[in-house]
Amino acid sequence: MTQNPASASSRFRTSAPALMEHSRDLCVPELRKAVSRLASPLDMVAAYHFGWSDRRGRPTTGGGKMLRPALALLSAQAIGGKREAGVLGGVAVELVHNFSLLHDDFMDGDELRRHRATAWTVFSPTLAILTGDALLALASDVLLNGSIHDTQLCDQARAVRRLTTASRRLIDGQARDLAFERRAQISVQDCLDMEGAKTGALLGCATAIGAVLASADDATADSLERYGHHLGLAFQAIDDLMGIWGDPKSTGKPRWSDLRRNKKSLPVCAALTEGGTASRQLAELLASAHTGNEAEQELAQRAELIEAAGGRTWTQHEARRQHEKALDSLGEVSMPDEVREHFVTLAEFAVERER
């Protein structure tokens, strides 16, 4: 039965940070147990990357948003499943997510993440890449060997299948993202397809995996996955805006970070296909650019041309469009009002981060 996702009572309203902090409390202890199984020094590199220790192994506080584990927990709750199913799924998707971050930081040459030096700059590119590989392998192992009372082995296998499919799509999306940096013209649809793989696939998996581990049928899991896929596209659209206009205090990265790498993100692609004067000037400027060596003034000029050609406004509208599509998919699944409201809250968080 289709339900209106906005119909849940406001009495269930919980902030997105509170939902993600709850997922941190439940999932991080299990995530730490999994990472502790890695061989040295990979365990130390992973602990540093996750924000649990400094470069010398001394305990610290910090870490990522934990959005994906929060979605995994909600997906189990959506069908009345056990909390353990959501925790197990949350740990697995967070391991894959951080595999991708370790690799992305090195491939993109990013020297900062969460306001401190990236793992590859601290421990070496080789160790960062090996640690990422180890996290990817560990994710499937966690799912296959995790213990959930009453969970069938076939459900664990179904979860692994979804996770490996999402991982393959994520890698494919990253490969296309890197290839786009060397191409002069990328269509908006090409960019959306790339971002649907790079970001949407794993968020979609996160939103289905808890339910799958709790024995949800495929139709229910697919609807939840569609919600996560569109949420991922909305989330990435806002990331693309922040990669150009974001405050370094919020992003943890230098100003105009995506422009420095000549990334063909959504605002850039939308601006280049607009066809007006600003669009043509931007194309000429990018054609003569020497990535990584541009002065601040030139980067500022690029940002101004992208905005003048409508790239910023178009991307803001696209984020909202994907947000609405996510809510439409959510409406396909019957679930407790409280869980539905939490899903709505996380969807709103995805498109409000720029403000």
Characterization of this structure:
The structure is a single chain. The chain is mostly helical. The protein has a single domain (5-352), classed as Farnesyl Diphosphate Synthase. It is built from 16 helices and 2 strands. The chain has helices at residues 16-35, 42-50, 67-78, 83-108, 119-123, 125-145, 153-180, 188-213, 218-245, 248-251, 257-260, 266-272, 277-287, 296-308, 311-330, 337-352; strands spanning 112-113, 116-117. It has a two-stranded antiparallel sheet with strand order 1-2. Strand 1 (112-113) and strand 2 form a beta hairpin. The chain is globular and about 60 Å long.
Describe how the helices and strands are arranged.
Elements: H1 16-35, H2 42-50, H3 67-78, H4 83-108, E1 112-113, E2 116-117, H5 119-123, H6 125-145, H7 153-180, H8 188-213, H9 218-245, H10 248-251, H11 257-260, H12 266-272, H13 277-287, H14 296-308, H15 311-330, H16 337-352
Antiparallel strand pairs: 1-2
pLDDT < 50 runs, ≥5 residues: none
What structural category characterises the helix and strand content? mainly alpha
Q: Please identify, by name, the CATH architecture.
A: Orthogonal Bundle
**CATH H-level superfamily title:** Farnesyl Diphosphate Synthase
**Helix share of residues?**
over 70%
- Total domain units: 1
Could you tell me the CATH topology label. Answer: Farnesyl Diphosphate Synthase
Compute the gyration radius: what is it?
A: 20 Å
Summarize model confidence as the mean pLDDT: 92
The SSE string, one letter per element, is HHHHEEHHHHHHHHHHHH
> Quick one: biggest sheet?
2 strands, antiparallel
Name of the top-level CATH class: Mainly Alpha
